[in-house]
């Protein structure tokens, strides 16, 4: 088959669940499949997108910027179908939510979640209407839809009216695959961000639904009882005000993939307080970094973390604070969560995601 990958959405310097999904899934597919021919459609910022060269891979650099969404959407809808015809594609896989409405070949689209429907605070009203229109229309036109969790599949059926029989659930792998560093190398990475141990880690996430204000409120209730700082890794969401970032709260700003596992491993506890996730890669990244996981029980997260996390209600600040107290005071419980987290990781691999995605391509091509 001749298969296209629509990755026009990727932005330089932005590392999130959908960018990790694209990088790790494409690497895994190319590692297990040398028979099909692949065309990877990238925007002009992504000439160095970190997927290895392969004899059966051709990169197509498109003259658009992902930062101008109107032009990107127009290119996806008008020019990408032309390229699909020129390259005689058998299938085009759009890797993040929005797919061309009219293609000369079957379409596959990955929908990571439906937060643009259920969470109004994450984007402007106009952008939300545009995303809902293109997502719903492109998904209805697609031959197959990939959901990254059973929860995400249920959400698509409930909020977008998509038929269950055309949705395939393919779990992602465990996120970041960079090695954990120890000793002086780990200390140097922590020093680079001005961090001191002991600390509690969390991912800032950059969006209001990451629920960081409630995490900060919960930490404020326990900080007098413990020596730990709270470290927010990555972009701080816009609903976090400067007054919330007290002396015991550290922020790192941008952290490259190579540093993240080491920063997580250096924590005594990782907290994921999110109100909504379609999958929850940070949870698996924490388990892979061998750090005890304290996790919201919202959305997809119980499905993904299995028994390898201590769950709490993300809307209840006192319950979150009490959960942190319990884990910080109980080293045996933390050790048990580490072991259960390692066991849970066995359910997820990018190699298996690649094999299942290839099966989706075959089903799409065969009709």
UniProtKB/TrEMBL annotation:
Gene Ontology annotations of biological process type: lipopolysaccharide biosynthetic process
Organism, scientific name: Candidatus Thermofonsia Clade 1 bacterium
Residue ranges occupied by any Glycosyltransferase subfamily 4-like N-terminal domain in the UniProt entry: 17-173
Matches recorded under SUPFAM superfamilies: UDP-Glycosyltransferase/glycogen phosphorylase
Matches recorded under Gene3D superfamilies: Glycogen Phosphorylase B (3.40.50.2000)
The organism's taxonomic lineage, starting at the top: Bacteria, Bacillati, Chloroflexota, Candidatus Thermofontia, Candidatus Thermofonsia Clade 1
Source superkingdom: Bacteria
Protein's name according to its UniProt entry: Glycosyltransferase family 1 protein
InterPro entries assigned: Glyco_trans_1 (IPR001296), Glyco_trans_4-like_N (IPR028098)
UniProt-listed CDD domains: GT4_MtfB-like
């Amino acid at each position: 088959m001749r298969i296209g990958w629509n990755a026009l959405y990727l932005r330089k310097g932005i590392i999130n669940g959908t960018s990790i999904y694209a990088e790790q899934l494409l690497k895994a597919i190319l590692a297990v499949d040398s028979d099909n021919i692949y065309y990877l459609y990238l925007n002009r910022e992504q000439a160095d997108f970190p997927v290895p060269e392969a004899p059966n891979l051709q990169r197509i650099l498109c003259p658009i910027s992902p930062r101008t969404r109107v032009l990107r959407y127009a290119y996806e809808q008008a020019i990408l179908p032309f390229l699909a015809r020129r390259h005689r594609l058998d299938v085009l896989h759009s890797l993040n939510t929005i797919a061309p409405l009219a293609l000369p070949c079957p379409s596959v689209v990955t929908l990571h979640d439906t937060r643009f429907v259920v969470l109004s605070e994450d984007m402007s009203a106009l952008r939300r209407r545009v995303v809902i229109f293109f997502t719903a229309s492109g998904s209805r036109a697609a031959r197959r839809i990939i959901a990254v969790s059973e929860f995400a599949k249920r959400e698509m059926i409930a909020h977008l009216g998509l038929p269950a029989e055309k949705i395939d659930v393919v779990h992602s792998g465990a996120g970041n695959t960079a090695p954990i560093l120890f000793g002086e190398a780990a200390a140097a990475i922590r020093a680079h961000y001005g961090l001191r141990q002991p600390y509690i880690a969390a991912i800032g996430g950059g969006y209001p639904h990451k629920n960081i204000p409630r995490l900060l409120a919960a930490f404020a209730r326990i900080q007098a009882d413990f020596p730990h700082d709270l470290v927010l890794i990555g972009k701080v969401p816009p609903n976090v005000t400067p007054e919330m970032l007290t002396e015991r709260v550290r922020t790192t700003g941008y952290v490259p993939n190579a540093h993240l596992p080491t920063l997580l491993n250096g924590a005594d506890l990782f907290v994921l307080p999110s109100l909504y996730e379609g999958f929850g890669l940070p949870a698996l990244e924490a388990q892979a970094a061998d750090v005890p996981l304290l996790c919201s029980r919202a959305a997809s997260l119980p499905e993904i973390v299995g028994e390898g996390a201590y769950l709490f209600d993300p809307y209840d600040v006192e319950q979150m604070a009490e959960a942190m107290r319990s884990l910080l005071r109980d080293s045996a419980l933390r050790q048990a969560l580490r072991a259960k987290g390692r066991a849970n990781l066995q359910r997820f691999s990018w190699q298996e995601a690649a094999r299942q995605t290839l099966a989706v391509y075959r089903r799409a091509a065969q009709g």
